[in-house]
Amino acid sequence: QKEVEQNSGPLSVPEGAIASLNCTYSDRVSQSFFWYRQYSGKSPELIMSIYSNGDKEDGRFTAQLNKASQYVSLLIRDSQPSDSATYLCAVNNGQGRRALTFGSGTRLQVQP
Amino acid sequence: EPEVTQTPSHQVTQMGQEVILRCVPISNHLYFYWYRQILGQKVEFLVSFYNNEISEKSEIFDDQFSVERPDGSNFTLKIRSTKLEDSAMYFCAVMAQKNTEAFFGQGTRLTVV
């Protein structure tokens, strides 16, 4: 059973702080890694993708991937109350046509 | 503009009835997917569709479910005889190329009563 694990939270950070979200995955052949943001009652919204080891930065967001440790993380700098949402880690194993395996998500609360 | 739109946004149906959920991709995509999310639970893969046929399906996607893309545009998910446990948000997703980014529609909330 291919699993993607996340701490369910809630992770509470003050406004302006750095939020750090973590994800581990069990399938070693995983090739593509994604972070989605999901507001309550809404659909997942893609915020970051990462395909190779290291860091990838996009605005206030940085994704980090370590395939040897089967670990992917998301850093949100200068957190804003509008960042309060559930963050979903998703993994694609690159084989067959199955798209994504999702973690259960980490709920982030940014306190004003 | 979203990559994909879904209709209806909310559907209420009686147990045992058939429902059809629709998805319309905005631009040219090759890969189509249905996912569902039961309230409070994780997003679960149902089925993938490529080149006008099912590529892969999960154990959730049993004989009660079917998909088709009859006119090359709309991508539909049919549930033949709904059960209470089919109540969930159903998301259509599209992907331009294999193993690239997947974009989700706004979802259809299905309530079976």
- Number of helix segments of chain A? 0
Tell me about the largest β-sheet of chain B. 7 strands, mixed
The H-and-E topology of chain B, N to C, reads as EEEEEEEEEEE
- Class by SSE composition of chain B: mainly beta
Biggest sheet layout of chain A: 6 strands, mixed
Helical segment count of chain B: 0
Helix content of chain A: under 10%
Task: Describe the structure in your own words.
The complex is a heterodimer of chains A (112) and B (113). Chain A is 0% helix and 53% strand. By secondary structure, chain A is mainly β. In chain A, the strands form two sheets. In chain A, strands 2, 4, 5, 9, 10 and 11 form a six-stranded mixed β-sheet that branches. The radius of gyration of chain A is 13 Å and the shape is globular. Chain A starts with a strand and ends with a strand. With 113 residues, chain B is mainly beta. Chain B is built from no helices and eleven strands. Chain B has strands spanning 4-7, 10-13, 19-25, 31-37, 44-50, 53-57, 65-68, 75-79, 88-95, 102-104, 108-112. In chain B, strands 2, 4, 5, 6, 9, 10 and 11 form a seven-stranded mixed β-sheet that branches. In chain B, strands 1-3-8-7 form a four-stranded antiparallel β-sheet, with no helix packed on it. In chain B, a hairpin with a 2-residue loop joins β5 (44-50) and β6 (53-57). The mean pLDDT of chain B is 92. Chains A and B meet through β4, β5, β9 and β10 of A and β4, β5, β9 and β10 of B.
